[in-house]
Each structure stands twice: as structure tokens, then as C-alpha cells.
Design a protein that fits this description.
Rossmann fold, seven-stranded mixed sheet, 7 strands, globular
Length: 269
Amino acid sequence: MKSPELEYYERIAPKYDELHAQPIQLYHTKVESELIQPYLYEGQKVAVIGCGGGREFEYLLKKQIILVGVDFSRGMLDKAKEKIQKLAKHFSDRKLLSYVSLIQADAANLPFGDSEFDLVFCLASLNYFPNYEKSLLEMNRVVKPGGKVIVTVINRWELSAFVKRIPSVLKIFKGGGGKKTSSVFRKTFTMKEMKELYRKAGLNVCRVEGIRLFLDFIPQAWNTRQEYFSKAQKAIQILSMLDQALLKLRFCKLCARFLMLVGEKPYGC
């Protein structure tokens, strides 16, 4: 029997490219790539745990790294394979196909040796993992001493979700019961929890960033319906400047939609 997470990913796999072509998702990938660039160099061996359809492959492969994508969904890995083939044509580099391996595996039981990678990513996936603690331990195991483990997670204290819940909370107080929502996420995390998880996994936190503060106040229809994309793009131009200024402040990072943590594996481990 498939887990709820696997069923969810298999269901959305055919729409993966469409979902990540929406304005906010495109902006998110741009910001994410800018934050990650300082940790990339040519010749690295990099693992992307929970790679999905490979939305981050384009900016990673620009550095001519050796890339291994891992996901537990066969449907997602099929989309990732299509992505690599498109990138090979885009870069006019057929050798690109030989730089990338795709493996179906559980993040809590990675099929790699100790200290095999220079860099490990897990981007917007840890929230879905049934065993996120073991998964982080595995990421630490497979990265080399001095190597980095970079994770982004959905933040439990995100500002936009809190504000959007206010009408439902008011309905509860008025006896209306509020609107129930369902989610496939196993868990959302606070910054404090993530730092503690890194510590337990044996990783030293060397950087914390927030991604998206006010952008998620843009009406959902603007981000999901193509006829409104131009409005979303204009709103993103304005709100992104505000985000960039405020997310330099620690308090504002605590309220971001996503938290990014960069951890380093100590030498001697």
C-alpha cells in the first residue's frame, strides 16, 4: 500500500512542470539558486535528496557538477529524466546526460557509501519525509567532512499562513467551526527545531536564511491562472524588494515561508 506522500507525488507528477512555471515558484527558484551559488564549484559530486522533477537541475548543472538525484516517486523521477534531456538540448551538451544519475530510494536509507558527496541538498522535501530525523542522519553520513548539507523547509511560523488562518479562527470563536484543511505534509518546522535537528544529526549550522515573506499574500488566482500571471509578476517585482530588505533581519527570517539552513559536517566524523 502506497503512503499518502507517495500517492500525492505520483498524482501531481504529470503537472510538475506546470506547477513550477507559476510566477511565485519561478521567483522562489531564482532566490534559492542565488543563495546556493556560493557553495557550488565545478567537479563536485552533489546529491539532491527528494529531487522531484528536477526544478533545481538547471542552475546546478551550469557548474558542470556530477549530480545524483534521489526520490521515492517513480513518476517524479520520470519527470526529472525529461528535464535532463531538455537541458542537454538547451546547453547543446549531450555529455550532460552522463553527469546525472537518478535513483529511486528512501531518504532514510540512502544507497550510498559514507562520505561520498561534496554537497547534499534537500530542498522543500523534508516536510514530507515520514522519518525526517533519520533522513538528516543519512545526509550527514553520505557527505564528506567539511562538506555542506543544505535544507529548505516550510516554516511553521510563516507569516502569510498565520494571517490567512485568522478568518477561520474568528469563525471558531463565533461557533462556526472554521474551515478544515488537509495537508500531505508530515510536519512543519521552526528555526529552533531545525537547528536542533541539525545538531542531533552531527551537523554544525553555519547559515540560516528565510525565503518569501510577503509574496504569498499575492492572490492565489494570480499565481495559478495564466491570464493573471502579468499581475503576479508586477506584484512580485514590488514585494520582492520589500522581502529582500526585511529578510536581512533575524525576526523576519523567523516568519518566512521557507527556512534554509546550511550545515557543515565536522572533520574527524
